[in-house]
Structures are given as structure tokens and as C-alpha cells.
Write a structure and sequence with these properties.
Belongs to the TRAFAC class OBG-HflX-like GTPase superfamily. OBG GTPase family. The chain is of the alpha/beta class. It folds into four domains: about 1-155, Spo0b-associated Gtp-binding Protein, Chain: A (Distorted Sandwich), CATH 2.70.210.12; about 160-345, P-loop containing nucleotide triphosphate hydrolases (Rossmann fold), CATH 3.40.50; about 365-455, GMP Synthetase, Chain A, domain 3 (2-Layer Sandwich); about 460-500. Helix content is about 30%, strand content about 20%. The protein has eleven helices and 18 strands. It has helices at about 60, 125-130, 170-180, 225-230, 255-270, 295-310, 325-345, 380-385, 395-405, 410-415, 465-500, and strands at about 5-15, 45-50, 65, 85-90, 95-100, 105-110, 115-120, 150-155, 160-165, 195-205, 205-210, 240-245, 285-290, 310-315, 365-370, 370-380, 425, 430-435. The strands form four sheets. It has a six-stranded mixed beta sheet, with helices on both faces. Strands 3-1-8-5-6 form a five-stranded mixed beta sheet, with no helix packed on it. It has a four-stranded mixed beta sheet with strand order 15-16-17-18. The longest helix has about 35 residues, at about 465-500. It is elongated.
């Protein structure tokens, strides 16, 4: 059974925006008192919240599919639809949020930090909001746009002040159990610890957290054992404690060789840009199990060489608690010094990042097709406008044509080489396909037509009076020509008969 999860993929769906309403106010003696359709509500968004009370991503491992509420539809009498209910997802401190492609979106380090990972859809405008002095009674409303839907990756990196590293069965779990209230699983076989354990240690006036990282072996930075899976939990630690087993019975192992292997793996692990490499952080050595006489002798033997390398060395025993007080106070001094340096650094000015619109609000890409070129229109505005359009309503389609023309799409299509009848697609993939008719100019406000219709989209083939008159004259002229030809043939026949007589 899974008890610890530090990587998970969430399948998120934000709420859809509600549709706007088409309504006309009716009062006594005023059957058409003006449009009063309300706007649709915005869709709910999915928000990740850094919560210190959450320590694992286990709940998202079992339930990875999460969705926010949809916005309500607009109603008559200028009543707007209700906004969709947003969904807050608490995550542990130290969670790194990545896109489906692996790009880092946010690092949840501050308690209460909120990141919107799935924005909700925009509610559609009702016909009351679309009315203006030229279009006084719109017979259409805008549809709500769909919310964001996709995957995000969550990766947990433990936030602790001190990390305990070492070979399997070196006594790391016993050490954290001896100096804190943590109660990890302890057994006499390798890889007993399958996930990091956190403990809180008090050393005088200093309180700090200690992380027990699963055992490292040679090749851990390349994926051997459990090291690569959990080395990332060491990234955020201030200091490292090398727990060395002085009572190991495995042939070919001793504290010095174990330390060399661990240092090589820590040096080979790449930390994110801007962080201090693991080997450049404060490090101390804890020679464990000195309650065993042979281990005590070995510790006395290797201690001078370790001190010659520049390490602070502590001989400890998790059974008799020998040396634990000195070790914890030394770690407290390191943590306090680091915190003082961090507090003395000038606080960076808070930067507010606002989305900056691109220089070109849309672009046109010409693609070759089996039946000629396809002109694909790309851009946030054209795609959103298409999503908001009710294609069953002629007036709404005409409004879309006006918006695209005012944006400059008509001129851009001309420059790209499009001609009347060319295939135009808005958006990626299948998108919305049009047969481009450049005659759709922006003049809907100046045209009079029943609500919900647009005379520019009139596909009626009924002939006008002038066309019928012209066709009638053409038929009369053709009949006169035919009668003249028959008369000429008759006269020619009579002339031939007279000649024969």
C-alpha cells in the first residue's frame, strides 16, 4: 500500500463560463423597452495553496482528477449568472509545480502562497451589455468560453534545515528518533526507510527540522537504489550530517570509504540554478554506534583523518545517547548562523508581474492542403471570439466578422494572398473553418434588419424586379430574333419555288 507520494500528475479542468442572455424588457405600453439580458458568470478556477499542515501528496495520488464549478447563465431583467465555485487544492511546502512538458510554473515555499494553475472560462456578455447607440437592440449574446483543461505535475521537495545522509542501515532513522519526536520505522536490514522522515529538534533557543533521507549507495546520482528518487529532498537543506556506521560487518566498508562514496554522489547530483551546490554547504560527520567497543576503537582511529579534511566530527550512539547533545547544539549554531545571514540580506523588492500583450495580437500561417492553401489565424483574441460566437445566429456571426475586420484580419489575409472563397481556419487543430468572403465589411450598425439576422449573410436567390424585367426583355428579344429567322427562311423558300416555275 502506498504511504508516501512525492510525485503526482493532476488532471485539472477549470469551470466553463456561463452564456449571456438574450432578453427584451417588456413594460406596460412599452412592449419593446430595450434589451435586458444579463451576463454569464465566470467559471471557477483551480488554485494550489501552500499549506504547512499538509505533508504528502497521497490524496492526489488516489484522486488525480479535479474540476472547478461552471459559471451560471445570464438571465433577463439584467440578472447576471453566478460565478463558478473555485477549487483550492492544499499542497505541502516545498512543492514544485510543473507543466505537462516539465517547465517549472511555481515553487510553493511560502505558507499561504496561492497559484492559479487552471484559470476559469470567461462568462459571455448578454445583449444588454452589447447594446450601443448604433446597435440598440442586439438579437444575440456571447457564449461563455471553456475553462483551462490539462495536466500539471507536482513534485515534493522536503523543506528541512538539516539532512541526514549516509549508507543504508547507518543509523539515520535511529538518530532522528533519538533527537526528536519522530517515530520512523527502524529495522536491521537495508533500505528500511522508503521515504523521508521529518523531525523537529530543540537545541537551546534554536528550533530546527531534520530530514532522514533514504540510504544512498554508489551510483545513486545515476539512478541506483533509492538515492536518485530522494536526493532532491536534500536540495533545500542548510546543513548535511554524514552518518557513518562504525560497526558495519560488510567486507570492504569502513567510515572513510563510505564517506568518499557519499561525497561523490552528492557532488554528481545537479542542484537547480541559483542554489548552493550540496558539497559547498556546512557539513558535519557523526560516527555512529560507538556504544560497541570495536566501533569506538574504529571511531578513534578515523577521527583525526576526518578532522584533517576539515569536518567537525562527533562520536554518537543512538542507544546510549552519547554525543547527541553536542551534535544537536552544533547543528543549532549552524542553522542560527544561516538564519542570521539570511535575515541580514536586503529584502528584494516585490515584483508584480502582469501579462504583457504581444506586439501582434494575431498571426496568419499559410498551410498547403490537398485542395489549395489554408490560411490559419492564430491568436488569443480570434480564438476566444470564435468560442463566444453562436453560429446559429446570423447577427452573432456578423458581429464576429466585424470584430475580426476591426482587428485587421481582412487586410492581413489580403497581404497573405487569400482570395474570395479561400479556406480560413481560426485556431490550432481542426479549429473553425470558413470560406472567406471579403465582402463582409464592418457596417452592421448602419444596417436595418430584424433582430437575430444580418443582411450581409442573406443567401436568398430570389430575383429582384429589375432582374426579372431584364430577363423578360432578353426572352422577348430572343423570340423576335427567332421569328425573323423563320420569316426569312419562308421568303427564301417561296423565291426558290418561283424560280423553278
Amino acid at each position: 500500500m502506498v504511504t508516501f507520494v512525492d510525485r503526482v500528475t493532476l488532471h485539472l479542468r477549470a469551470g466553463k463560463g456561463g452564456n449571456g442572455c438574450v432578453s427584451v424588457r417588456r413594460e406596460k405600453f412599452k412592449p419593446l423597452a430595450g434589451p435586458d439580458g444579463g451576463n454569464g458568470g465566470h467559471g471557477g478556477e483551480v488554485v494550489l495553496v501552500a499549506d504547512p499542515q499538509v505533508t504528502t501528496l497521497l490524496s492526489y495520488h488516489h484522486s488525480p482528477h479535479r474540476a472547478a464549478g461552471n459559471g451560471g447563465f445570464g438571465m433577463g431583467d439584467n440578472r447576471s449568472g453566478a460565478a463558478g465555485e473555485s477549487l483550492d487544492l492544499p499542497v505541502p511546502l516545498g512543492t514544485v509545480v510543473k507543466s505537462a512538458d516539465g517547465d517549472v510554473l511555481a515553487d510553493m515555499l511560502t505558507p499561504g502562497m496561492r497559484v492559479v494553475v487552471a484559470p476559469g472560462g470567461i462568462g459571455g456578455l448578454g445583449n444588454a451589455s452589447l447594446a450601443n447607440p448604433k446597435r440598440k437592440a442586439p438579437g444575440f449574446a456571447l457564449l461563455g468560453t471553456p475553462g483551462w483543461e490539462g495536466d500539471v505535475q507536482l513534485e515534493l521537495k522536503t523543506v528541512a534545515d538539516v539532512a541526514l545522509v549516509g549508507y543504508p542501515s547507518a543509523g539515520k532513522s535511529s538518530l532522528i528518533a533519538a533527537v526528536s519526536a519522530a517515530r520512523p520505522k527502524i529495522a536491521d536490514y537495508p533500505f528500511t526507510t522508503l521515504h523521508p522522515n521529518l523531525g523537529v529538534v530543540e537545541a537551546g533557543d534554536v528550533r530546527f527540522t531534520v530530514a532522514d533521507v533514504p540510504g544512498l549507495i554508489e551510483g545513486a546520482s545515476e539512478g541506483r537504489g533509492l538515492g536518485l528518487e530522494f536526493l532532491r529532498h536534500v536540495e533545500r537543506c542548510t546543513a548535511l550530517v554524514h552518518v557513518l556506521d562504525c560497526a558495519t560487518l560488510e567486507p570492504g566498508r569502513d567510515p572513510l570509504s563510505d564517506l568518499d562514496v557519499i561525497l561523490a554522489e552528492l557532488g554528481a547530483y545537479p542542484v537547480p540554478e541559483g542554489q548552493v551546490p550540496l558539497l559547498e554547504r556546512p557539513q558535519v560527520v557523526a560516527l555512529n554506534k560507538v556504544d560497541v567497543p570495536e566501533a569506538k576503537d574504529l571511531a578513534d582511529l578515523v577521527r583525526p583523518e576526518l578532522e584533517a579534511r576539515g569536518f567537525r566530527v562527533f562520536e554518537i550512539s543512538t542507544v546510549s545517547h552519547a554525543g547527541l547533545r553536542q551534535l544537536t547544539f552544533a547543528l543549532g549554531e549552524i542553522v542560527a548562523e544561516h538564519r542570521a545571514v539570511a535575515a541580514a540580506e536586503p529584502v528584494a523588492e516585490r515584483v508584480v508581474i502582469r501579462p504583457k500583450g504581444s506586439e501582434a495580437e494575431f498571426s496568419i500561417r499559410v498551410e498547403g492542403g490537398s485542395y489549395g492553401d489554408i490560411y490559419r489565424i492564430l491568436g488569443a483574441k480570434p480564438v476566444r471570439w470564435v468560442q463566444q460566437t453562436d453560429f446559429q445566429n446570423e447577427e452573432a456571426v456578423g458581429y464576429l466578422a466585424d470584430r475580426l475586420e476591426k482587428l485587421g484580419v481582412e487586410d492581413a489575409l489580403y497581404r497573405a494572398g487569400a482570395v474570395a472563397g479561400a479556406t480560413v481556419v481560426i485556431g490550432e487543430g481542426d479549429g473553425i473553418v470558413f470560406d472567406w468572403q471579403p465582402a463582409l465589411s464592418s457596417a452592421a450598425e448602419l444596417m436595418t434588419a430584424p433582430r437575430g439576422t444580418d443582411p450581409r449573410l442573406d443567401q436568398s436567390t430570389r430575383r429582384t424586379t429589375s432582374q426579372r424585367r431584364e430577363r423578360y426583355h432578353e426572352r422577348m428579344d430572343a423570340k423576335a430574333e427567332a421569328r425573323a429567322e423563320l420569316e426569312a427562311e419562308r421568303l427564301a423558300t417561296l423565291a426558290d419555288e418561283d424560280d423553278q416555275k
